[in-house]
Design goal:
The protein has twelve helices and 23 strands. By secondary structure, the protein is an alpha/beta fold. Mean pLDDT is 93; it is low at 387-398.
Amino acid sequence: MTRLDKLVRPGCTVAFADGAGLPRGAAADELSRAAAEAGGVRLFLGWCPAPPEGLDLTAFAEVRTIMAGYALRRPVADGAVRYLPARLGTVPALLRDVIRPDVLVAPVVRVPGGWRFTMEASWLHAAVEAGAVVAGVPQHRPRTAHAGPLLDPARVVELDTGADGPATIDWGGGPSDVQSVVGERVAALVPDGGRIQFAPGGVGAAFVAALRRPVHVDTGIVTPDVLTLDRRGLLRGLPVAPYLAGGEELYDWADGRPLVHPLENTHHPGRLSSGPPLTAVNTALQIDLDGQVNVEAVGREPVAGVGGQPDYMAAAARATGGLSVIALPSRHRGRPTLVESLSTAVSTPSHDVDVVVTEHATVDLRGLDRAERRAALSKAWAGETAPAPGPGKDGTER
């Protein structure tokens, strides 16, 4: 075992594992002290669903992240953390070609033949392949759902600071009445035996609760909603995802099951667009009249990040029998979610959006020109269902 001050050198770059396994407490505090002592250390952060307790951002020369929202909203808004607008499928290349971390601080579990990550694989393998030494935080309760390749023992240095396990991530209460209506509309679009990708939160939970047919889960984050599918006998095979985040029941269920894979696998466009038809269900902060989507910010206030939405939406749109869906209530905090122009950059382009669903309507945009799309979306927010001309991708009339 060793300490981080033996690994963190002046001017080096440290990648800090993300997701529910985000190192916190003693490991984060130790890294902060080591970085302050070394000087000039750069820090790379991923998706932080919970505050990285013990991590002092001022100890680093610069901090960059690929997810502006969740626990990093305030540091990004204040300028303490720089947000890189990269979709998840490009992050492995970003790490190998640009970030090039020297050290990766990540939770690990010892298994026969080597080490495994715990409840996330995401971009961690790419960091190792970029040359990072794994500063492994051993888990006091060793549980793993890691499906990726074993870590080379020669690349792992076990820290003398352990951790209690993945954080409990609270995805909020049940869906609202409006979200439940949206979820019912979306569930009707999923074919028998298809694959689903869904964003966590109220709309995603409502969608899963409304499903009445078995599905495969191929998504960005395995949440407790998957347990609901399993209990109802509607889960086919093992879920595939780069992250797993929820509570103890989910972590116990996942332990020993190869569920979390590297982004190179989960977000590969060829894999996603082949196999059982993929219905990608995502939500938005705003959508404009052309069908362009904003999931990152409201004005100058960061909320989330690009994430994997454009990866899944593009793959579903190109897949035979697939469907890319934006599902959202027509109003948020009293304001329409349909806008003339987005308040920030486009997260997902309009040409990767097949269907838009609100509590009022299900609008199929496929086969429509720009003027027809604008008219269809305007009618949907007025509470009218706008018929789309011509056959759908499956040859049926819409």
